[in-house]
Putative copper resistance protein D
Amino acid sequence: MAGDWLTIVLRLALYLDLAAAFGVAMFGLYALGNDERSSTISRRYRVLIGASAAIGIALSMWGMTVMAKAMSGAQSYAELSTHVFDMLITGTHMGIAWCIRILALLVCVLVAMLKLNATLRFAVMALSTGVALATLAWAGHGAMDDGVRGYIHLASDITHLWAAGAWVGALVAFLCWHPTSRMSRKTR
């Protein structure tokens, strides 16, 4: 039973983390003007998105380890062999989605560290975190149907993840928004 709770907590943390990363990146694209994308708030968002992507990698790896233990029936993590991970990662749709997620998050971390045009940086971070967020659909209800119905269900879940991510990320972006010193002097 404790393993079930760990799986639930890890999935929730991963959903919130990736939703925040995607939403903040989208917020940087649609809410910040060109001059604001070079400002302090833009740098805060870049660091937040990069850190969230790195945390997403760690949570994904931890989640895959917990899933491997649960699916193999192992009593402890020490019993897990590379064969179990190989089978899970290369032999299931969830595993392939996991690989795509890790790759997308690595791209995001790299882009967050590179010196690029701010608009291009936000666009690539939004794209990579959007891909990472979409991969969560393969570990949920979106993967339960086959054929055309399965594709429709998967597309619906991905769209829902993106909408929720944009909303969660906008909330996070607003929480990170601090008035500039010039604005705070005017209010005194």
User: Anything to note?
Assistant: The chain has seven helices and no strands.
